[in-house]
Amino acid sequence: MENVLSDLTMHNIQNRTVGIIENGSWAATSGGLIRAKLETCKNMNILEQTVSIRSSLKASQLSQLEALADAIAADFTLTENYKSIEIDKAMIDSAAMFKLSYGLFVLTARDGGKDNGCIVNTAIQITQKPLRISIAVNKDNFTHDMILKTGEFNVSILTEHTPFSVFERFGFHSGRDTDKFDGFESDERTANGIRYIADQANCVISAKVLSTDDFGTHTVFFADITQAFVQSNIPSATYQYYFDNIKPKPVKPPDNKSGFICKICGYAYEGDNLPDDFICPLCKHGAVDFEPLR
Asked: How far is CA 166 from CA 60, 119, 163, 185, 237, in A?
């Protein structure tokens, strides 16, 4: 125990709540020795109550252990501690997020006679038995509201052969004022009555929502898979593949002009300064997803 405490103090452990259990088999004053070691660390909340055990734990002492555990739990306010953390934004390079491995999907829903869909990149299998997935959907998407109301959706997994027009159709417009399926070449539906992408998806998954979790700008939907089928063996499109091979190369302004380019859709903004609240007119992403012309 002395070695453990020495390691902890040498590694500058701090900002902890500690409950002490001492055993007379070590030393009659072991609890005091432990407390003295930990008091040399910064911002340590050492609880007053100490459980003293002689040789072995007695049944009559179980209530003391429970009281110690309750005291630790009462002090453990994870949510408030998390909210109090101040993040140094200078340490965060948003470009790091583009290195994560994402797939690209068309998420579709149906409410009454209205079909709709949007592009998402956060469909994840969470269990095998039973088969369940989760999706995170921005609350600004009309598809989000439809799924929240109906509790059902389809995920069409896009392939590397998907043309840019599919991303334009489902990613650059809002279903609140646009019929995203207007003029769409296919009208296939799964057993739940929701449309899916037949020609550009290698797999289609239908799901029924079990629960939701609110994450501010997004809602995460947890759902049971109700239907799934494979349409082709063409490789799935990743975010990186989309940027490298599907998204058109941006058309830059003339050499004598400066500007910024949207990393999502390639829209070029002319000007020396990009407003912090600027929203891309094509893909609706904010200024954070623009980079200076080089």
From this structure: 69, 9, 6, 11, 12
Does residue 106 contact residue 156 with C-beta atoms inside 8 Å?
yes
Q: In this structure, are 148 and 56 located in the same domain?
A: no
What backbone torsions phi and psi does residue 108 show, to the nearest 5 degrees?
-120, 155
Q: Which residue has the higher pLDDT, 243 or 232?
A: 232
Q: Are residues 30 and 121 in the same domain?
A: no
Residue type, 5: L
CA-to-CA distance for 224 and 122, rounded, in angstroms?
16
Whose structure tokens read 């299998």? 125
The residue segments making up the domain with residue 253 are 249-292
Quick one: 129 and 212 in the same domain? yes
Asked whether residue 89 is assigned to any structural domain, the reply reads no
> Is 9 within the bounds of a domain?
yes
CA-wise closest residue to 285 among 293, 274, 294: 274
For the question of whether the overall pTM of this predicted structure is more than 0.70, the answer is: no
Q: Is residue 94 situated within a structural domain?
A: no
- Dihedral sign, CA of 92, 93, 97, 100? negative
Please give the average per-residue pLDDT across 19-37, as a whole number: 79
Contact 185, 195 (CB under 8 A): no
Nearest to 264 by CA among 162, 171, 138: 171
Structure tokens at 184: 């769409």
What is the C-alpha separation between 279 and 271, in angstroms, rounded?
15
Q: Per the domain annotation, does 106 fall within a domain?
A: yes
Check residues 155 and 76 and name the one with the higher pLDDT: 155
Angle at 209 between CA 162 and CA 283, to 5 degrees: 35
- What is the number of domains present in the chain? 3
